[in-house]
Amino acid sequence: MNKPTRKQWQGYAVLCLALALALLAVVLWPKMEKAPEPTAHSPLKEAVARYGDEMAQERALSQQTRYVSVPNDSPFSADSEHKPVAAPKRGDAFTIELNSADTADLRCLYGIGPVFAARIVKYRQQLGGYVRKEQLLEVYGMDEERYAGIAAFVVLDTASVAKLRVNELSVAELKRHPYLDYYQAKAIVDFRNGGRRYRSMDDLRLVSLIDDETATKLQGYIQFN
User: Fold this and answer.
1) Regarding beta strands 154-155 and 96-97, do their DSSP bridges make them parallel or antiparallel, or are they unpaired?
2) C-alpha to C-alpha distance for 111 and 142, rounded to whole angstroms
3) For each of the chain's 225 residues, which pLDDT tens digit applies?
4) CA separation for the pair 206, 5 (Å, rounded)
5) Residues 153, 150: Cα–Cα separation, whole Å
């Protein structure tokens, strides 16, 4: 049998190469093809879009119902501490009696949330009651602007204010009042122990440590008989 010539060998090589390339193309071609994208009106896209619209509507509704708008001329507070659900206008007959109001009542005042309401009640207990509306400015954190917004809606009944019986109370009892410190309370008792009795605010002013400012603050809290 004759051996293949050189040209025949070259032909065999070209044929083998062609077969190899064809086989490679058959194996790799399916992996190179991209899956067709869904059409613009495919059921999947429509479902996703519809779900997104429904979620957006729910979020908008929840934000609208979360807060209640309050008129600017309302005596109710709409600050970060308190979101009232209703509010009478300033023209309505609306007042809070400061010495009997609880925290819920006080929260009806403009700018007063739960924190300020609790502070007002706590300071009232320390004082024994308010005798002047201006004492609200002594409540921690109260400023002129906030006070101006509530002053017209506050009234006072001083009949229940606790009095300081300066002719009987001890140093410990007197110094519990916010307007007196230990040394002032002791000076009041020492003056009394000298055989004197207090009959008026003028007598109290004779105590060396009771200055005019302190005497003025104590006006309305002192009981002499």
Assistant:
1) parallel
2) 10
3) 566 677 776 777 777 777 777 777 766 665 555 545 544 445 555 654 565 565 555 554 444 333 333 333 333 333 444 443 334 444 456 899 999 999 999 999 989 999 999 999 999 999 999 999 999 999 999 999 999 999 999 999 999 999 999 999 999 999 999 999 999 999 999 999 988 899 999 999 999 999 999 999 999 999 998
4) 141
5) 5
